[in-house]
Protein: Zinc carboxypeptidase
Amino acid sequence: MKIFFTRAFFLLSCFILFNLNVSAAINWGYGEDVNSSFQNPDSTKNRFRFINTNFENASQLDWELDSLGIVNISLNYDHERSSINRANGHWHFQLEADSGIEVTLLLKNFENIWNGMKGIPVSEKTNCLISEDGVNWSIIPADLISGNQLRVKIRMKSDKIYVASVEPYRISDLDKLLSEIGQNPLVEITDIGKTVEGRPLEIIRLGDPEAPFSVFLRARAHSWEPGGNWVVQGLIRKLLQKDSAPFLKRYCVYILPMANKDGVSRGRTRFNTLGKDLNREWNFPADKVLTPEKFAFKTWLNMMVKKGKKPDLAIDLHNDQGGNIHVNLPTSDNAPYIANMKRFENLLYRHTWFTEGPSHVKNPGSFGEGLARRFGIDAFVYELNYEWAKGLNKAPMAKDWELLGSQLSKVFYLYFDKDK
Ligand SMILES: [Zn+2]
Structure:
């Protein structure tokens, strides 16, 4: 009898718990007020289906469809180790909805902290890009609304549309470039180390290492900033054309094309995957464990210095909302450096679409200042404006950055003119 009552009590308990769970599920996920558009097949709102982030360089985000049918997208911040700094500015995802309808997106979380200060990476000039194939992109309006949110309305031309902040440049794009140029006798590709997650880091050499001058370029220290990758791709393709032979007689080019490959792969915004900024702490030795990307480069650079092949000029390519070149040592005891930077700036005005001018903001530990101080290399950071190319009077696209890269070939040629 005792066993009978125990069993009966157990079965009754299970029945009550089961019904409570069903009731909770209805209230939590399937209630009338929560995304009813997903449930009613006749609803006009039942046309949005999914935000796909399951591909290379897709951004990290959370999304929710609200009762008005707006897709609220909360982008994830990158966080810096031992710091209050955080960054977000990258969005890249695939929108799935019925062809022909308009979907409204609301992008959130643009309250960045940069060098300990608040910084908003979006403005009235911010663009949004869409593409059906992830290769050919076009610009659509993005409205900055209260609370630093971006509202984007997308008319679906097919049932899957890629959406991005700037034209993406992925590791697979770099791999295609490397296989395109790898067999060219003017090119040497050398592995110099690995990222935190073990991805190979390479230096591309173009031209003769015995040429009288050399320039080094780094791209993609910050993972969301693809402008530098498009620039070096444009430069490489230009230098491998026959009419560029005189350029490579005068100078050799070394390129670290993608410093923060892990961040690019994972669709992050700024830091490497251990939360370190690869454009900071250049005034200290590189941490082999936390920043193997910097350690590999510094090891390579030390080897070049020992061989007497220290680059004469070094440029770190970035994206921001200013578009300036950062001349980092604006003091009187660095007159030759300042004079060289002025000469380079003037050549940029004459032979590229650059018009934004220099910035003399002190940025201790950045690539430009670090290389200038520690290695005596004329080095600077070039920030490509991702919102507006003033010299072209348009929002910049990949082909514009590639054009600038090809134009740099002549800038270097004239900069390294011994008679000047
Ligand atoms: Zn940057």
In short: Residues 222, 225, 279, 318 surround zinc ion (CB under 6 Å). The domain at 36-164 is CATH 2.60.40.3120 (Immunoglobulin-like).
